[in-house]
Amino acid sequence: MTVPADKELPKPSNFLRQVIERDLEQGTYAQRRWGGSPGDAANHLAGEPDPARIRTRFPPEPNGYLHVGHAKSICLNFGLAREYGGVCHMRFDDTNPEKEDVEYVNSILDAVQWLGFSWDANGTSHLYHASDYFDFMYRAAEYLIEAGLAYVDEQSAEEMRVNRGDFGKPGVDSPFRSRSIDENLQRFRDMRDGKLPDGAAVLRAKIDMASPNINMRDPALYRIRRATHHNTGDKWCIYPMYTYAHPIEDALENITHSLCTLEFEDQRPFYDWLLDALGEGGLTNQPHPRQYEFARLNLTYVITSKRKLKQLVDEKHVSGWDDPRMPTIVGLRRRGYTPESLQLFCERIGVTKSDSWIDYSTLEQALRDDLDPKAARGMAVLDPLKLVITNWDAVMGAGALDDCSAPVHPHQPERGRREFKFGRELWIERTDYEEVPPKGYNRLFPGNKVRLKYGYVIECKGATKDANGNVTEVQAELIPDTKSGTPGSDKVKVKGVITWVAAADGVPAEVRMYDRLFSVPQPGTGDKDFLEEINPDSLRVVTAYVEPSLAHAKGDDRFQFERHGYFVADRVEHREGKPVFNRVAGMKDSWGK
Ligand code: ATP
Ligand code: MG
């Protein structure tokens, strides 16, 4: 089957798209109403038919910077909502009473927007905080107690652990499990009112201590913890457990499809148990949200653990969260990745239900495919060696400079041309000269002719060396009437074409040649400390010469340096007149080599 070239290929289906399409077709959520803001069943019942066909959410804990794994979750949740006429909620999962850092909150909002998504829909900002639901969570807990579905357990932590059993051994009922509803209610209120010390009791769901799924063996719902919460202050000394809080957050927000990573698969029965109970009790909207698990992103040569990334920053193995070698969104952005390239990457890796490692080259290829049609071209010499045209003065006149130009983009003539000079002295790559050429080498060696791209054909005459035998200068003669783009310019046939920058108008630039931060494909997974797996050569800084068009770049401008790959003007340190570039990726995949 052939596809017409002008037709955009349909996005490949995946199991999540299938689930959503099935729900839309069957009208699973079609009857639901939306109260205009998150709330209980009554709130939503009083509202209008839900204008969102589906609701998803992205629920980070504000305890670190987002990384490329989160980008997958963001693209998935916001992307699916956009695709199916839905809404994706931006929710801070701040039920842990640890200090919320504004720095993290802001960086998370920034990252989502930079990736190209928004939580505004139909004039409403769907930015929510889980801690705003504490009152409801408490009410729901009392309801569960009253329904005989929860009890206050005062076993010690150790007793609870032992009595939970394990995979081969069913659990044992707590002696507190058969307390009366009234006693449970009283003890739970005592917990809330600060009458019990931290750790003295927990509220547990009453499900089944013999369940083969350990998560269903009376999971904890609330614990006592005297801690000041950034949002609710000292109002609470009991806090909900994540497994209890998360389904409730989803239900209050009318989420339809709650997407999470595979490690939560065993939690799904409890998710459904809880929302069935609260739904039947009339507390939360029905039909309730459903949880679907997908494989988390593992990327080779990359660490995606927040804790380890923080350690890299805190211990100064990198320059900060936005170090261009970091897999954080701010790091990838500074490295030169575009939002579109990350979206493309996420689309290509797709979603599956089994964990695997994605090769880093997949990320780089998405960058190349995004930038190839967009990035302006430019010439840069990264390892400069002086080339002198010995017959220049005789042929062109002493001190003469010749005007050369090249297309900004080879396939987009409408973008115009870049101008630069050709002169007696030029910069070429050190590797473009060999005194004794290896087999198949077509560049400069004594007696060989090459074309200086967009310039002239030259014939190499020799080179000068220093006392250590290092080449300090190459000499060549220009062959007249061979300038690119002039009639007869190809009368002299050459096998090699090299890039260059004239000494007269080339501008020195700091170029940061980044490489993988870790030298093993699956860092942090073996016996070794991940810090010992850091690549000692992940950054090489060179002083390059760049053509004038590159020197006039603005921070964040991206280019293809011809022959070398993709580079970005560093968004933090690049200045007009003092250019700083980061290498994003080479021209071709070099990861396997
Ligand atoms: P923590 O260990 O601090 O809980 P986390 O990686 O789970 O870290 P969250 O802030 O809780 O971070 O994650 C927000 C969302 O991003 C969650 O829905 C989570 O499933 C998703 N997510 C996190 N890491 C990845 C990953 N590597 N691949 C795909 N999704 C991820
Ligand atoms: Mg988490």
From TrEMBL:
Q: What is its main location?
A: cytoplasm
Q: What is its EC number?
A: 6.1.1.18
Question: What InterPro entries does the annotation carry?
Answer: aa-tRNA-synth_I_CS (IPR001412), Gln-tRNA-synth (IPR004514), Gln/Glu-tRNA_Ligase (IPR050132), Gln_tRNA_ligase_bac (IPR022861), Glu/Gln-tRNA-synth (IPR000924), Glu/Gln-tRNA-synth_Ib_cat-dom (IPR020058), Glu/Gln-tRNA-synth_Ib_codon-bd (IPR020059), Rbsml_bL25/Gln-tRNA_synth_N (IPR020056)
As its record notes, the protein acts as a catalyst of:
tRNA(Gln) + L-glutamine + ATP = L-glutaminyl-tRNA(Gln) + AMP + diphosphate
Q: Kindly indicate whether the keyword Cytoplasm belongs to this entry.
A: yes
**Protein family:** Belongs to the class-I aminoacyl-tRNA synthetase family.
Under HAMAP family, the record lists:
Gln_tRNA_synth
Q: Which protein, by its recorded name, is this?
A: Glutamine--tRNA ligase
Q: Which organism is it from?
A: Ramlibacter lithotrophicus
Upper lineage: Bacteria, Pseudomonadati, Pseudomonadota, Betaproteobacteria, Burkholderiales
